[in-house]
Amino acid sequence: MTTAAVPMSHGLILAGLLFVIGLTGVLVRRDIIFVLASLEVMLNAAGLAFVVAGARWGQPDGQVMFIFILVMAAAEVSVGLALALQLHGRLSTLDIDAASKLRG
Amino acid sequence: MELVFYISGAVAVVSTIAVITRLNAVHALLYLVVSLLSVAMVFYSLGAPFVAALEVIIYAGAIMVLFIFVVMLLNLGPQGSPEEREWLRVRTWTGPGLLALVLIVELFYAFVLGGLGGDIPASTGVVESKQVSLALFGPYLLGVELASMVLLAGLVGAYHLGRRDWRREPGRPAATRMNAARLAGTPARPDAWQEGGEPAIPVAGGERPSPTPAEHEETRS
């Protein structure tokens, strides 16, 4: 009796789809909050790809990699949101195109 | 269990598209929470219950809460910033949307025709948390230590960048200010080389960090 299983290509297609949607968000949106949120979507999709690969071989390495990606995403989000607060504080806008002059 | 995978996958894709197309920041973040929860369901259906729980606890429960706190702090209005309506026209989306569509088609083609081998044994291949913990404390121990260093770097960076009290005189670098203080005769504060100097603790009645202890006491009382 064979149990029906999910093909690995379907899992990777889902990860790729989410990644490309996040990428579109990074390209189109100009508000820094949305850029950071789309970056989170991309990181989550990459983690999904790792977990799919780990589940296919029945090994914990995929989940371990996902944990590391999670840690990195958490550190990146805190620094990125601190930068967003600075942007809002100094330029009174959240448009990333407003920070266009490098001043000494 | 396969049905759970496909349904949760569809919910994830729909809510992620909703994230990038909203105008209101809080709506977008709530859709992002839904997307993360559905990806957690996908993890569970693939036999990875440990990372399903971690996704809910850490990603949806801590990182998204941080986002929402910052959006509340910045007090973005219900319409979002008024400029965004102008930016988000359909013609803005056609270029990146077409390129993304090309990427997606390529992806499907490569994955389905490339014959990526294997199925994920959904009901029998559950990787329990015990195996993950043994891997983390065994071969991946160095990675765990490095992850803690990344968190330390993030903590220090977020603390330093999050200070709102940088009272920088426009156009004057910090070294010039300290030398100007020394030339004017006022004792240069030892941390005057840092921008701002004082942490963001409000001092009663003072808008400048006081240069001498005597003035400091006066301001305090």
Walkthrough of the structure:
The complex is a heterodimer of chains A (104) and B (221). Chain A is mainly α and 104 residues long. Helix content of chain A is 75%, strand content 2%. Chain A contains three helices and one strand; from the N terminus they run βααα. Chain A has helices spanning 8-28, 32-57, 61-91; one strand spanning 6-7. The model of chain A has no long low-confidence stretch (mean pLDDT 88). Chain B has helices at 2-21, 25-45, 49-74, 82-87, 90-113, 129-137, 141-161, 174-184, 213-220; one strand at residues 119-120. Chain B is mostly helical and 221 residues long. Chain B starts with a helix and ends with a helix. In chain B, α1 (2-21) packs antiparallel against α2 (25-45) and α2 runs antiparallel to α3. Chain B has nine helices and one strand. The chains are: A mainly alpha (104), B mainly alpha (221). At the A-B interface, β1, α1, α2 and α3 of A face α1, α2, α3, α4 and α5 of B.
Quick structural summary:
By secondary structure, chain A is an all-alpha fold. Chain A has helices spanning 8-28, 32-57, 61-91; one strand at 6-7. Chain A starts with 5 loop residues before the first strand and ends in a 13-residue tail after the last helix.
What topology does this entry show?
The complex is a heterodimer of chains A (104) and B (221).
Chain A: E1 6-7, H1 8-28, H2 32-57, H3 61-91
Helix pairs in contact in A: 1-2, 2-3
Chain B: H1 2-21, H2 25-45, H3 49-74, H4 82-87, H5 90-113, E1 119-120, H6 129-137, H7 141-161, H8 174-184, H9 213-220
